[in-house]
Amino acid sequence: MKIKPQIWLSSLIKNQNSSPSSLPTPQLLKVGLYLTWGASLLLTIITIAGVQQQRYAIKTIGKDTAPSIILAQRLKDSLAGMDANVANELLVKPGENPRAIQDYEERRKAFAERIVGAAENITYGDAERKPIETLQLALGDYMAKSQQARDFNAAGDIRGALSAYREAAQIMDNTLLPAADALDKANSQELDLIYDQQRFATAQALLFIVISGFLLLGVLIRIQLFLNSRMRRIFNPMLLAATAIAIVFLGYTTRAFLSASSNVKVAKEDAFVSLHALRQARSLAYAIKADESRYLLDKAFAVKHEQAFFDQAAKIAKLPNDQTFETVSAALAQGQKVYGFTGFLADELNNITFPGEREAGVATLSTFGSYLNIDKQIRQLEQSGKHQEAIALCTGYNQGQSNWAFTEFKTAHQKTFDINQQAFDNAIDMGFKNVEGFEITTPIVAVAVSILTLLGLRPRMKEYE
Predict the structure, then answer these.
(1) What would the pLDDT profile of 277-297 be if each residue is shown by its tens digit?
(2) Do 279 and 417 contact (CB within 8 A), yes or no?
(3) Alpha-carbon span 190 to 197, nearest angstrom
(4) At CA 280, angle to CA 274 and CA 285, rounded to 5?
(5) How far is CA 347 from the centre of its chain?
(6) Which residues, 6 or more positions from 158, have their beta carbon under 8 angstroms from its beta carbon?
(7) pTM of this prediction?
(8) How far apart are CA 215 and CA 21, in angstroms?
(9) What does the pLDDT look like over 302-348, one tens digit per residue?
(10) 267 and 353 in contact (C-beta within 8 Å)?
């Protein structure tokens, strides 16, 4: 029987305008297969992009900015330490304080090593390069003026030594230390920016991964339901395997992203906040050590140096008016909050997170208090006209003298710093481990899901060939 052309054309138009559910089964199976492949590809692209973005943030925080910030403060304490030892050396006759000369050389060598490290880790162009150049150039001027002061001192020209040292001190205060702060600031701004962006980017990437993952699962589940309703297949082993792989991958990826974000938070908010505060406290401690010696060395500006000492010491630790270092240390050791306690050491002690950190932090505060008590004795001796006794107490290294107390502070400080540094390094390492290997595993998962889907649907499509 012949079919009239009008009837055949009408039937074809009707089929073209029909809904997808009315398509032939083989075509629907192919559509499902293609959708699975597309969803797998989408999941792969989004996951790898998110992983790379997360890895960039971890690297920026853990390898670029945070180490440069700490290094900037180390440069600053090297410089301030050099200046403190020059002042100590000039307080006595030439050759009477060999320890000051030795300590000066140690600080100078430390600066030389650290400035190389800073130059090797330039990431943000002139914002870092210019402070580093300033540090390198100005240090030569400072050392030249310091040597002039030593030469005048050796010749017995006290006035010339003091004049040359004042010029050196101006270079230190107005050029070198601000340049170290500028290097710190350049990296601190970038770290804060990247950290804020990372938190948003992680949430965004994870949302897209979950959406694309559920899209893939939705396609796989819909194919299973179609096979059950259209072809009376209770389950398809290959599709079940593909679905299981997708579920496991989505759960693993979600957990990895959340873990990486948590580790970055530990590194930034728990460890680095304390690290930065501790390094700032240490660099300022060297600066006030120089102010202490300047107070005895330069009587014409003694009031100025004394005020500078008190101002910077308050930035390290400022106690409530009715408290002492002993009472504050005792309260903090019990885990109590001391209201009105401010400064860099307060920032650290209000951010206790890791085992042993509280004890080390309290010891740091306590030894700093001991150092300030000896400084108070130095000023009392000076104001009582006992200038030589004040110098002896300021430049001495025996127990109960200023340099001894300062060394005790540095030892306690270093222990606290090391606890936080170890925690920071561990968190960054774990963050990298959380997101490693995704460039390999994600495509493998996508290919596995695609192949399993093909193997599951191919026999059904053959039934219609």
Answers:
(1) 999 999 999 999 999 999 999
(2) yes
(3) 10
(4) 125
(5) 16
(6) 152
(7) 0.87
(8) 19
(9) 999 999 999 999 999 999 988 999 999 999 999 999 999 999 999 99
(10) no
